[in-house]
């Protein structure tokens, strides 16, 4: 496994953990008092599954489409984390604004990567 693939696997897992963990926590907040205790395990499971999928997809030399999907998911994770850190940390945007901007940027980068690699 190359360093680039390792970074993509880790980035995709962290991004999935954050997106799913925050989404589940916020969706359950009105009905469950300690919704974080549900959001964290859900995010952890999502992060592990996405990381495993990207790892297996990048290692698959027989299926070009599976490899493209895994590459796009890895690029989403890298762009999402980078934009989240820059928008939230350096520019001081609010949490919701930074998450929305990072998600949109990650989706755009993933779509561009998928289309370009075809």
Q: What gross morphology would you assign?
A: globular
Given as residue ranges, the uncertain stretches (5+ residues, pLDDT < 50) are none
* Number of domain modules: 1
What class, by secondary structure content?
mainly alpha
Q: Which H/E pattern describes the elements?
A: HHHH
> What fraction strand?
under 5%
Beta strand count: 0
Give the topology.
Layout: H1 3-28, H2 36-59, H3 64-90, H4 95-116
Helix pairs in contact: 1-2, 1-3, 2-3, 3-4
Describe the structure.
The chain has 118 residues and is mainly alpha-helical. It has one domain. Helices cover 84% and strands 0% of the residues. It has helices spanning 3-28, 36-59, 64-90, 95-116. The longest helix has 27 residues, at 64-90.
Question: Short summary of the structure?
Answer:
The protein has helices spanning 3-28, 36-59, 64-90, 95-116.
Keywords:
118 residues; mainly alpha; 4 helices; globular
């Amino acid at each position: 496994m190359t360093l680039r693939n390792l970074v993509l696997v880790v980035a995709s897992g962290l991004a999935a953990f954050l997106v799913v963990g925050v989404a589940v926590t916020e969706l359950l907040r009105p009905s469950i008092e300690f919704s974080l205790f549900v959001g964290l395990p859900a995010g952890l499971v999502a992060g592990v599954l996405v990381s495993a999928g990207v790892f297996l997809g990048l290692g698959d030399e027989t299926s070009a489409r599976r490899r493209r999907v895994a590459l796009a998911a890895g690029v989403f994770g890298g762009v999402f984390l980078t934009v989240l850190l820059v928008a939230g940390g350096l520019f001081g945007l609010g949490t919701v604004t930074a998450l929305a901007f990072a998600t949109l940027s990650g989706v755009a980068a993933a779509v561009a990567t998928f289309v370009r690699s075809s």
